[in-house]
Structures are given as structure tokens and as C-alpha cells.
Target: ABC transporter domain-containing protein
Amino acid sequence: MSFIPASFVLYLIQERVTKAKHLQFVSGVSPVTYWLTNFMWDICFGLLGVNGAGKTTTFKMLTGDTDVTSGDAIVAGSSILTHISDVHQNMGYCPQFDAIDDLLTGREHLYLYARLRGVPAEEIERVAEWGIQKLGLPMYADHLAGTYSGGNKRKLSTAIALIGCPPLVLLDEPTTGMDPQSRRLLWDSIVGVLRDGRAVVLTSHSMEECEALCTRLAIMVQGTFKCLGTIQELKYKFGDGYIVTLKIKAPKSGLPPDPAPAEKFIRINFPGSFQREKHYNMLQYQICSSSLAKIFRLIISNKENLHIEEYSVSQTTLDQVFVNFAKQQMEDEEIPLHPRAAGASREARVSPALHQQAVA
Model:
């Protein structure tokens, strides 16, 4: 695994996302700067956040589509402020909204971008065919891009981003609208990019996709990095503990299962635990303040006494970690409700009859 010190640095890129928000890269809450040193080329970095968190704005600043108000970013030794042309030569970009020409075929797109990338003329046909096969576009390669479905347009945009083997590939929600088979093809393509020793920065709303591809993740809230680390680190530090599921068997033949002893056992040994579900002989608890070893030790040593037939212990999912951070943005955003909207205050309701009389 190769290391290129400071070859890809995100250094205090600060941009106004809305009138009240600033986009900052920070390590936790402070300090105000976040420096990703010793960035590994063969890494897939996931950038997560709800809609409006600043992910696409981040990409637009890195590609020069949006002005940077302060700070800088270094890609392969070149600054996006002073050497954006050199940055473009070392970067492939799949934007959130497909930048394709409806009057060109998929193959013509790849030919065009291969020439722009400086692919030798004798290699262009082979490179274009590689992109077509890699992303599963052989049936549509010679059709006009304007006739493509949303999923096929995303495939074409991703193939364009991979043309020329750029050291850094930015993919902004590349699998939106793709069917499961196409999504797997794209995942395989990204894995191939990583095996070539190149880097990928990916945004996605699919936690499954992030767990399959990303080696490190950051979650943004209102334009700010709230956490950074591997998936396991985020689950351990920001998750809600463990989910314990118990299946209770009958104490004797002909008698119904009795979950009461198991419920009492959980309350005594795991104070603060929360019962998520209870169905006949199934119990499910969320246990926040306990080690995994303690959970297994206590359950195994009391399995027979509590008549536990089966049990499982699972960690909080990445979805839950994401939701916990997403709540912060939703709580900070006050959305005014129409007086007749669901959840609006009763005092704010307007009577149609009284309103008409007032107007008259």
C-alpha cells in the first residue's frame, strides 16, 4: 500500500452553503482545520450527509466549478486555486447531474473524452470499448444518450470519469437509479480502480454501498465534518451499542414460553437497556453501556436458566449512525408550517368562513 504524503489535502475549504451556513472541514468540532495527511491513493473515501449538507458543493470546489472563499485543496501536488488545469489532468469526475450530450451516442461520448484525456489515437477504440463493457453498456453504446434511462446515464457518466485512468476519481452519487445488477457492476469497477492504486471519493445515500466499498468515512452536517474514521470506528464511537435478540423456549412440553425471567435478567444486568420488540417468545433489546464480552458471558452462563433457545448480538448499523447525525441538521432547521399543515399549531389555524368575512 503506497503512501504519498500530503498529495491530497483538504485544508480548511470554507464555503458558504446557505446564508446561515459555512462549509468547513474539521476534525470533530475543533480545531477549525482538518488536514488529511498521508492520504493513500488506494483508498475509497466516503462522504455522507443528508441532502443539503454540502457534499456536492465540496466536489464543485475541488473541480473548480464553484469559487473557494478561503483555504485551499491540493490534489497530486497541485493547488485548486493556482493550478486547476493540472488538477483536472489528475482527476475524473462524475457529477450528481449527468453532463452528457443527448445527440451523441454513448460510444461517441467515450471517444470524445478519451481524446480530451490525451489517450493515444490508436488506443481510443480499445479504451472506449473497455468503458462500455466495464459498466454494462454494450446494448446501448450506439444509441443516442438522450434515449438512455436514468440508470444508463449514470453508467455513462461513471465511465467518462474513469477514462484515462486518473489518479483521483470523484463520484457524486453514481448509483442513483441503477438496478441491483448494474450497481454491482459499478462496485466491481470501483474495486478495480482501487486495485490499480488510485483513489476514489464517493458520496452516496446507500449505507450498503458504503460498507461494501469505503475504507474511511466522513459524515457532514450543515457543511461540517462531524466524524471521520473507518466504518467500524464510527459504529463503535457513535453507534447506539448492541442489539440483543433472544428466543425463549417453553420450560416444559405443553407449556407456553415465559419471557418474564429473561426480561428481569436484562433489566438487572444491563441497566438503561431499551426493549425494542416483544413477540410471544422473541425479545429484542438495545444495550448501550456494556462491552461485547460481558454480553456474551452473561447470556451464555444463564442460557439454560432463562430457557434461551437462540440468541444473537449485532452492532448498531451504519444507517443508525447516519440517522443520529442527520437528526442534528433536521433539528437545527426550523421549517415554518402552513396553518393547515399536519402538525401545525391549532392556534394558527384559519377558518375559511372567517377569512372570507375579513376579506369582504
